[in-house]
Amino acid sequence: MELPTRPLMRATYDSFDVMATLGTGTFGRVRLVKHKENNTYYALKILKKCEIVRLQQLHHIKCEVDILSKIDHPFIVNFLGSFQDDKRLYLILEYVPGGELFSYLRRQGKLSDDASRYYASQLVLAIGYLHSLHIIYRDLKPENLLITQDGSIKITDFGFAKRVEDKTWTLCGTPEYLAPEIIQSKGHGKSVDWWAIGVLIYEMLAGYPPFYDENPFGIYQKILTGKVEYPKYIDSKAKDLIKKLLTHDRTKRLGCLRNGAEDVKKHKYFSSVIWDNVIAKRDTPPYLPPITGPGDHANFDQYPESTEDTAVPLTGDDKAAFDAFNLF
Helix 191-206 and helix 113-132: axis angle, to 10°? Predict the structure, then answer.
């Protein structure tokens, strides 16, 4: 089934006043911008074309934009449009002013059972929605979850997301959150997102991930061994849910059975959750970020300004490959 594309806004770099950096990555950075005509704030993801070509990520970026342009969910960041110039691609995204769940979690140390359940229930609905469209997300972690002004969360950064009918073999993701089938290159599908939700719930409740080591190979070894130590203060229902999500055998992992996300929703950890209230955002959030106004970016880390411009225009076949994108 081909997904419909939502109508997107048209803009150029000159349409915006460019403000603070909200985050940095391999290909560039995300900036807070204000549209000069409608005075609305957005997050502008700025990607260097030369880096995309050098790292052979053109197909990944194409998938990211294609997926973002077709999804619409309360707990996923809205994609509003895209454009390009000779050096860069630009993705216009909804600005979520509350900062990363990662920052909140680090400040708190760990979250209460109720707070963890609040965020986990929203995630279960968002991941279930993506899976219903045959999209696997593949990069679930606290850094990719933004807190909205009303205290709910939104998934951002779809750089690893992919539409998959069955399996894919690409190694990608963050070491602490990788499912064993990714590390073993067995081919993977929706199962990896349910594993990552298990890791995330553990990290919210404990304050640290279940598999940790100083280097990635140590982490991979621990994931493959599968031994998890549970702090005594983790509730028995939460522990049972995490164990069922961190099941090595994908055919037995919760979320991967016949009823998919519905099985996760029916777990006793969520017995107090009214799912219609979750999607309608009727539940009281555990935390409301302090926000003084629409362009407030105090909830994000401060980044040094980019002092040198390393982006260069493309030529020849590389240029033609970008020009052929009718999405931009």
Answer: 170
C-alpha to C-alpha distance for 40 and 33, rounded to whole angstroms: 8
- Give the count of domains, the chain: 2
Whether residue 217 lies inside any domain: the answer is yes
pLDDT above 60 (res 2): no
What pTM value is reported for the model?
Answer: 0.93
Q: Are residues 229 and 90 in the same domain?
A: no
How many residues are recorded in the chain? 328
* 45 is known to lie in a ligand binding site: yes
- State residue 167's pLDDT score: 64
Tokens of 57: 């990520």
Range of the domain at 255: 101-279
* 180/235 same-domain check: yes
Same domain, yes or no, for 139 and 33?
Answer: no
| Identified catalytic residue from 14, 66, 86, 139 | 139
Check whether 185 has a pLDDT greater than 90: no
Is the confidence at residue 169, as pLDDT, over 80? no
Q: Known catalytic residue: 139? A: yes
SS (H, E, C) the chain: CCCCCCCCCCCCHHHEEEEEEEEECCCEEEEEEEECCCCCEEEEEEEEHHHHHHCCCHHHHHHHHHHHCCCCCCCECCEEEEEECCCEEEEEEECCCCCEHHHHHHHHCCCCHHHHHHHHHHHHHHHHHHHHCCEECCCCCHHHEEECCCCCEEECCCCCCEECCCCECCCCCCHHHCCHHHHCCCCECCHHHHHHHHHHHHHHHHCCCCCCCCCHHHHHHHHHHCCCCCCCCCCHHHHHHHHHHCCCCCCCCCCCCCCCHHHHHCCHHHCCCCHHHHHCCCCCCCCCCCCCCCCCCCCCCCCCCCCCCCCCCCCHHHHHHHHCCCCC
Q: Which residues, listed in sequence order, are joined to residue 93 by a DSSP beta bridge?
A: 43, 79
Same domain, yes or no: 25 and 114: no
- Residue 40 is assigned to a structural domain of this protein: yes
